[in-house]
Amino acid sequence: MPRATYSVPSHRKRKKVLIHAKGYWGGKSRLLRSAKESVERAWQYAYRDRRQRRRDFRRLWIARINAAVRLHGLSYSKFLALLREKHVDLDRKQLAELAVSDPAAFQKVVESVRD
Q1: Is 25 helix (H, G, I), strand (E, B) or coil?
Q2: What Å distances lie between residue 94 and 43, 51, 54, 91, CA to CA?
Q3: Are 83 and 114 in contact (CB under 8 A)?
Q4: HSE-up of residue 15 (Cα within 13 Å, Cβ side)
Q5: Of 63, 64, 59, 25, which Cα lies nearest the Cα of 42?
Q6: Which tens digits make up the pLDDT trace of 12-31?
Q7: Coil, strand or helix at 23
Q8: Cut 0.90: pTM above it
Q9: Residue partners of 79: CB distance under 8 A and separation at least 6
Q10: By C-alpha distance, which of 35, 37, 40 is closest to 21?
């Protein structure tokens, strides 16, 4: 009996790749091999960049906290050391949000840590 290659699962597998390649330019959205290569590369980038996004946000928060703390005569590293010493449990995301949206509250945090 000959091997059946024209089956429903094969169609579904190919269709899944082409659906994910929708919007790509030229043959990358129509031809199976180039679509598959492009989609797999896109998935690799997506996987990598989901992790990189966390790093980027952390860098942004640190830069914002550093800028806000320097207005009060401290450096970022000294400020974080004082926070740990005084057992203040605010993470970088919360501190950066305070520094941007509510400078008065951030100033109170800096003063409470400094005393």
Answers
A1: coil
A2: 31, 20, 15, 5
A3: no
A4: 6
A5: 25
A6: 999 999 999 999 999 999 99
A7: coil
A8: no
A9: 65, 69, 110, 113
A10: 35
